């Protein structure tokens, strides 16, 4: 394998010493490789998935690819995880549930628009051999958000009352008003309420049998929680995560973490203003949500993921710029996501056009190390790939030499 793809050992490997390793999962190629997800199997095997093709929703050759890395080995050649003929397959999410079943949850875009996405999943208990997992079941998740029309209508009406004169006076902003009115009309249509909900980040188990999955809509620019308590036979859905006070709207791609008191925290991508990581909480295992708040961490409109660690700390990985995906940072919290004082850069190019490192997927392995995969392009490397990094909390706590 090319030297640039080999693991680069930056630190000693003693249990309490800082550790950082990195590699490309496959050599950069001329396709669009994006939206990865990673899990660890019981035997320590890592499995990843991402979407691969000529573009995103407008290119019909887009498929979900995957790769496997057994303990002590290297990433295998990519294989196909899902490929709906002549339709784009995007945004894969992997999850291994407490029974040991591998889930692949993803979307198939029906009309080359995100709002026409169909939510699907596959299950496998036989996924450690060579090649793709042997899928034993596939189904569609039919979304049915609670109180979407009434809550979204109230939000748009309030927003246009406040911002309407401003939008009317600035020609460049007129399209925002048009999109808001169109979205309001769609919120009253059962078809539009129920399609277009997309995946991005790992589900979490918030009770012995409740698997909580984060969803979002680019039509309504908000997030949603879905859950199953019978391993996918039936699904229930939350109220949308919205802020009726118009302080922090347009929050998407939720990452869920459960606090010790049972409360579930959501950390979300900013899809509007003020370009900060968004937050919300649920006291009923995801069924209803608080108003939306913000963290004092910049976000340029790019995916974030947070996880709880065995030490009691939480980790959050995101682009922490207000413009551009040229910097990717891991943060640590000692107070279950309220503050994030410790951080270290995973990537840090000087200009927003010098590189793009985005859409992190984060897990903690059984040995305590943290693994992340993310989309990787850099101006001095031809093509795109998915990068895999492995590090520990000590490496983050050591601090960033380029603060």
The third-level CATH topology is: Neuraminidase
Task: Name the CATH class.
Answer: Mainly Beta
The helix/strand series, from N terminus to C terminus, equals EEEEEEEEEHHHEEEEEEEEEEEEEEEH
Instruction: Classify the helix fraction into a percent range.
Output: 10-25%
The counted number of beta strands is 24
Q: Strand sequence of the main sheet, in spatial order?
A: 1-24-23-22
| Helix vs. strand class | mainly beta
Q: Beta-strand percentage?
A: 35-45%
The tally of helices reads 4
Query: Average pLDDT, to the nearest integer?
Result: 92
What coarse outline follows from CA principal-axis ratios?
A: globular
Alpha-carbon distance between the termini?
A: 34 Å
Give the uncertain stretches in residue-range form. 1-14
Radius of gyration: 20 Å
CATH architecture descriptor text: 6 Propeller
Return the domain count: 1
State the major sheet.
Answer: 4 strands, antiparallel
Give an account of the 3D structure.
- It is a single chain.
- A hairpin with a 5-residue loop joins β14 (251-258) and β15 (264-270).
- α1 runs antiparallel to α2.
- The chain has one domain: Neuraminidase (6 Propeller), CATH 2.120.10.10.
- The chain has helices at residues 148-169, 174-187, 190-194, 393-397, and strands spanning 20-24, 32-40, 46-53, 63-69, 79-82, 89-96, 102-109, 117-124, 137-140, 204-205, 211-217, 222-228, 236-237, 251-258, 264-270, 276-282, 293-298, 305-308, 314-318, 327-333, 342-348, 355-364, 370-378, 381-391.
- It contains four helices and 24 strands.
- Mean pLDDT is 92; it is low at 1-14.
- With 403 residues, it is mainly beta.
- It is 11% helix and 40% strand.
- The protein has a four-stranded antiparallel β-sheet. A four-stranded antiparallel β-sheet has the order 2-3-4-5, with no helix packed on it.
């Amino acid at each position: 394998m090319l030297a640039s793809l080999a693991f680069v050992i930056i630190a000693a490997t003693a249990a309490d010493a800082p550790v950082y390793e990195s590699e490309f999962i496959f050599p950069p190629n001329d396709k669009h490789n994006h939206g990865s997800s990673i899990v660890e199997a019981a035997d320590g095997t890592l499995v990843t998935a991402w979407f691969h093709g000529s573009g995103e929703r407008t290119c019909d050759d887009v498929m979900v690819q995957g790769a496997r890395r057994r303990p002590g080995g290297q990433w295998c050649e990519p294989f196909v995880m899902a490929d709906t003929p002549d339709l784009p397959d995007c945004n894969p999410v992997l999850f291994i549930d407490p029974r040991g079943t591998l889930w692949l949850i993803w979307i198939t875009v029906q009309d080359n628009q995100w709002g026409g996405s169909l939510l699907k999943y596959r299950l496998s208990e036989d996924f450690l051999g060579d090649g793709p997992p042997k899928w034993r079941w596939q189904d569609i998740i039919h979304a049915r958000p609670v109180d979407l029309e009434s809550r979204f209508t109230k939000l748009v009406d309030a927003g246009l009352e406040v911002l309407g004169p401003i939008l009317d006076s600035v020609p460049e902003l007129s399209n925002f008003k048009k999109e808001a009115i169109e979205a309001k009309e769609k919120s009253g249509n059962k078809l539009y309420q129920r399609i277009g909900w997309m995946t991005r980040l790992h589900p979490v188990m918030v009770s012995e049998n409740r698997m909580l999955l984060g969803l979002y809509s680019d039509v309504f620019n908000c997030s949603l929680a879905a859950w199953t308590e019978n391993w996918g036979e039936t699904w229930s859905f939350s109220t949308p995560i919205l802020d009726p006070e118009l302080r922090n709207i347009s929050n998407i791609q939720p990452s869920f973490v459960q606090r010790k008191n049972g409360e579930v925290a959501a950390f979300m991508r900013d899809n509007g203003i003020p370009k900060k990581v968004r937050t919300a909480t649920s006291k009923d295992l995801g069924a209803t949500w608080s108003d939306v708040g913000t963290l004092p961490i910049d976000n340029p409109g790019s995916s974030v993921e947070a996880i709880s660690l065995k030490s009691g700390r939480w980790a959050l990985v995101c682009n922490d710029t207000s413009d551009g995906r040229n910097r990717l940072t891991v943060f640590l919290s000692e107070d279950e996501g309220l503050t994030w004082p410790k951080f270290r850069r995973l990537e840090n190019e000087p200009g927003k056009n010098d590189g793009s490192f985005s859409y992190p997927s984060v897990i903690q392995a059984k040995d305590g190390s943290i693994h992340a995969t993310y989309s990787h392009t850099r101006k001095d490397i031809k093509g795109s790939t998915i990068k895999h990094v492995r590090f520990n909390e000590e490496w983050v706590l050591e601090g960033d030499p380029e603060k």
